[in-house]
Design brief:
The structure holds 2 protein chains of 2 kinds. By secondary structure, chain A is an alpha+beta fold. Chain A folds into 2 domains: 176 residues, Four Helix Bundle (Hemerythrin (Met), subunit A) (Up-down Bundle); 177 residues, Histidine kinase-like ATPase, C-terminal domain (Heat Shock Protein 90). Chain A contains 12 helices and 8 strands. Chain A has a 6-stranded mixed sheet, with helices on one face. Chain A has a two-stranded antiparallel ribbon with strand order 1-3. The longest helix of chain A is centred in the middle third of the chain and has 112 residues. The two termini of chain A are 26 Å apart. Chain B is an alpha/beta fold. Chain B is built from 5 helices and 8 strands, in the order αβββαβααβαβββ. At the A-B interface, helix 3 and helix 4 of A face strand 5 and helix 5 of B.
């Protein structure tokens, strides 16, 4: 079979569909606001990331500064204590009092212990070879100086002042100068390291700022482009809607003009006395009544469409499928009879009850039957079938299908047939009257009662529209299945 | 008579085993081990770099009298004394100098005046200062109560005896010679 089957189906449950429709409408209506919100969120996220970067940089700077300050302070203390060790040694030269000399010697040794411990600490904490090297050199020079210092102290205490001065000048001064240079070098090392750290931190900070600017720039650009696209799309939609509305007005005007013209002609005939006989009077009166009824139907459809636009709510109750079909056929009886159409019914026996509103679902079915009549110019037969479908695990449904052998729908139009005011160019060209609202109304109604509407169509072959109606709670098994009474399909 | 002879033999045996063997006497740094040492014993201390380990009592006396000016390593001998009034000083005056305070002062006044004594003793105010002085000065020699001695200075044997030996002579409280 080469039928082009392109089903347009909505298989999601009604609740989800409603929620989706609601969220979709909410998003559609406030698309720019949502976008701005998303962009704002992205900006806030970027801001937080950038702030974290900057705070980390700040912490690093603080840590570098603190480390540098601590290191420099330690070196300053070492310098001071080294000077103190030397100074107190020299103080011993200034007195002959053995007690004082011992006290100065004691102070000098206290200071030198502090320096020695400081050097050991520095060596233990040194991380790079330059630091270790400088620390070892300092330790070695300090030991050498301490030996000289001990000699000087010993000589002072022994009373050999001249010898003490000589040793200090020849040995002590030179060795202490080396210690001082070593300490200065360590100080420079601290400075260098702090400078290097700061350079790194500055570059990292610059990178963070650059990232932030790029992020903000990109987000703003993206937001601008998206808003522009949204607005453009919205404008297009509005233009399209305006066009559709204009088409609708034209179409409705045309639809209105025909019956009005007929009513006008019949009324003029009556007024001008062209219809004097009883049969003529009845004929003219019938024209007026029929055309007025057509007008009324048109107005009803427009009003119904307006009503379905604002989330229609129907009182839902269990319905017999036969009840729905009977109601629809009864309402369409005149049309079918006048058009000369016969309805071939294939109703599965023992169908379960469905949930819905009789009038609303009947109206859906009527719209589908009316379309089948309208778009089947040659074949005067319509198929109407109803069957139970329990293939879906989550939801069981009854499918009521209207099948015609009319124009069919081209694949390009198939995706748009449920849009309000849409009328296929082929149909317009064929001068088939209509408002383009029937399918849109049917879809809105069936979805409002928790069902869905699908279509299978092929251009030139015909179309099958199917109403999928949810089975009422507690009635999910058809009688035939319950009683295992065979396939149970009936043809009327 | 037999009893007296046995007593004398026992005494001789005890002395023979108790005395340190001649020539093997060595000084030790500080007092690592004390056997019931009374705190009144005076230890003679020198700087740890001083090679001298043992002095005879006469050598000690000469050093403290100012009659010896250099140590074997060439360092000048610096005698340290505590200020008058300290019991340690009194023991030194009595047992080493065998002089009164006045005789001691006169001796050094005369000696320095005549040039016989190059340097008079350093007078220090406390045992702590004295110990530190000896620790700092390579040629210093001094004295401390045995209980005040620590590892910063070296105790010298006198006549081969350390302060914890029974034959050690310098004791505060007149137990010495």
């Amino acid at each position: 079979m080469n039928r082009q089957t392109r089903p347009v189906t909505w298989r999601t449950p009604a609740g989800v569909l409603k929620a989706r429709a609601f969220s979709s409408r909410l998003f559609d209506e406030h698309r720019s606001a949502w976008l701005l919100l998303i962009v704002f969120g992205v900006e806030v996220g970027l801001g937080i990331l950038a702030m974290r970067d900057l705070l980390a940089t700040y912490d690093e700077v603080e840590s570098v500064c603190a480390g540098s300050v601590r290191g420099l302070r330690s070196i300053g203390e070492l310098q001071y204590e080294a000077q103190e060790a030397r100074r107190t040694t020299l103080y011993a030269l200034t007195t002959n009092d053995g007690n004082l000399q011992v006290e100065y010697a004691d102070q000098s040794r206290g200071a030198d212990r502090f320096v020695t411990e400081g050097i050991m600490q520095y060596l233990a904490q040194s991380r790079i070879p330059r630091e270790t090297e400088a620390g070892k050199r300092l330790a070695s020079d300090w030991d050498a100086y301490l030996k000289a210092r001990d000699d000087v102290l010993g000589l002072i205490l022994e009373g050999s002042i001249k010898e003490a001065v000589r040793v200090d000048l020849t040995l002590g001064v030179a060795l202490f100068d080396r210690v001082r240079q070593d300490l200065e070098e360590i100080k420079r090392l601290y400075d260098d390291q702090a400078s290097q750290h700061l350079v790194l931190v500055t570059s990292s900070s610059r990178r963070s700022v650059l990232k932030l600017i790029c992020g903000f720039g990109f987000a703003l650009l993206f937001a601008s482009a998206a808003i522009w696209a949204i607005q453009r799309n919205r404008m297009r939609n509005e233009v399209q809607l305006a066009k559709l509305q204009m088409d609708f007005v034209t179409s409705v005007s045309h639809e209105l003009r025909t019956p009005i013209t007929a009513i006008l002609c019949a009324s003029e005939n009556l007024r001008d006395g062209f219809a004097r006989r009883k049969e003529d009077l009845v004929e003219q009166g019938s024209i007026i009544v029929d055309q007025a009824a057509q007008l009324s139907g048109l107005v009803d459809q427009v009003l119904l469409f307006a009503a379905t636009r604002t989330e229609p709510r129907y009182p839902l109750r269990p319905l017999q499928v036969s009840e729905i079909i009977a109601s629809a056929l009864k309402n369409m009886a005149v049309l079918l009879e006048r058009s000369g159409f016969t309805v071939e019914q294939r109703i599965q026996q023992g169908l379960p009850q469905v949930v819905g509103d009789l009038q609303a679902i009947s109206k859906c079915l009527q719209n589908l039957i009316e379309n089948a009549v309208k778009y089947s110019p040659e074949e005067r037969q319509i198929g109407l079938s109803a069957r139970f479908d329990n293939s879906a695990t989550d939801k069981k449904e009854v499918q009521i299908s209207i099948q015609d052998r009319g124009f069919g729908i081209s694949s390009s139009d198939l995706s748009r047939i449920f849009e309000p005011f849409f009328r296929s160019p082929r149909v317009v060209a064929a001068q088939i009257h209509g408002t383009g609202l029937g399918l849109s109304i049917a879809k809105s109604i069936v979805e409002a009662v928790g069902g869905r509407l699908s279509v299978v169509s092929e251009a030139g072959v015909g179309s099958t529209f199917t109403l999928h109606l949810p089975v009422a709670e507690g009635d999910a098994q058809p009688d035939t299945v319950r009683s295992a009474a065979g396939p149970g399909e009936a043809t009327t | 008579m037999r009893l007296l002879r046995a007593l004398l033999i026992w005494l001789a045996v005890v002395l023979l085993f108790d005395l340190p063997p001649h020539g093997s006497v060595e000084a030790t740094a500080g007092l690592p081990e004390r056997r019931n040492v009374p705190h009144e014993i005076l230890a003679i201390i020198v700087n740890r770099s001083n090679p001298v380990k043992n002095l005879t009592f006469e050598e000690l006396r000469k050093i403290f009298m100012g009659e010896r000016s250099r140590w074997p390593n060439g360092h000048r001998v610096i005698v340290t004394m505590m200020e008058p009034g300290h019991p340690e000083r009194e023991v030194m005056l009595r047992d080493v100098y065998r002089m009164t305070e006045k005789d001691y002062l006169d001796h050094f006044l005369k000696g320095t005046y005549t040039g016989d004594i190059p340097v008079s003793p350093k007078t220090l105010s406390s045992s702590d200062i004295l110990r530190k002085f000896v620790f700092n000065a390579p040629g210093a020699i001094g004295y401390l109560r045995a209980s005040d001695v620590d590892g910063s200075v070296k105790v010298v044997r006198i006549d081969g005896h350390l302060p914890d030996d029974l034959e050690y002579k310098l004791q505060i409280g007149g137990l010495g010679k």
